[in-house]
Amino acid sequence: MSTPPSRRAILSLYHTTLRTSKSFSSYNFRNYFIRRAKDTFRAIQSESDPARAQNLFAEATKELAVLRRSAIVNQLYGGWRLAVEDQKPAMTRADT
């Protein structure tokens, strides 16, 4: 019988996944992965079977590695900011 992951381990993985999801430069990818992370971790927390919870946790760990690599590639080839995103004000000489 496998032991389920601790609450601290789940929260740590959740925060790391959210932080990585927020590092995408593309608005659509960023919001998709944030929603997906929330759904995934809700499923892990609501799981009552320890073996199933362990499998979901292991799968989320593997997905985090893929997400990190994808975020790096997305940052390399980031495009223009969309109109729905918060626009950063242009810097002027007086601001420095």
TrEMBL record:
It comes from the Eukaryota. Pfam families: Complex1_LYR. Signal peptide: none annotated. One of its GO terms (biological process) is iron-sulfur cluster assembly. Residues 8-65 form the Complex 1 LYR protein domain. CDD domains: Complex1_LYR_LYRM4. GO terms for cellular component: L-cysteine desulfurase complex; mitochondrion. Belongs to the complex I LYR family. This is Complex 1 LYR protein domain-containing protein. The lineage of its organism: Eukaryota, Fungi, Dikarya, Basidiomycota, Agaricomycotina.
